[in-house]
Amino acid sequence: xxxxxxxxxxxxxxxxxxxxxxxxxxxxxxxxxxxxxxxxxxxxxxxxxxxxxxxxxxxxxxxxxxxxxxxxxxxxxxxxxxxxxxxxxxxxxxxxxxxxxxxxxxxxxxxxxxxxxxxxxxxxxxxx
Length: 128
Fold this sequence. Notes:
Elements: H1 6-18, E1 25-31, E2 34-40, H2 43-46, E3 50-51, E4 58-60, E5 66-72, E6 77-85, E7 88-95, E8 98-100, H3 104-121, E9 124-125
Parallel strand pairs: 3-9
Antiparallel strand pairs: 1-2, 2-5, 3-4, 5-6, 6-7, 7-8
């Protein structure tokens, strides 16, 4: 009879747990130099994400929704994670692995990506 050792059982348990699908909605677009991953409790809630009519600013991100964006360009590798926290939109931005304040230049870069995000993810902009 074959028995698994304690470490093997723990490893197998971990691998199997990685296969479990958590509830909620996920959308991933993974193209050359452009990665977008959106998570939300449901597709209906994901569809509540709103950008302004000019497609330059994120206006509303529902509770428990998150946007991850990774873009490589001439400047380098931009990594942006956007979450909702207590009614505010929180931006975590890295350029070439270095965490930076989400300032004017970073907001301008993000604004340049919004039309792509809206188009690729089928999100809405303008009045809800």
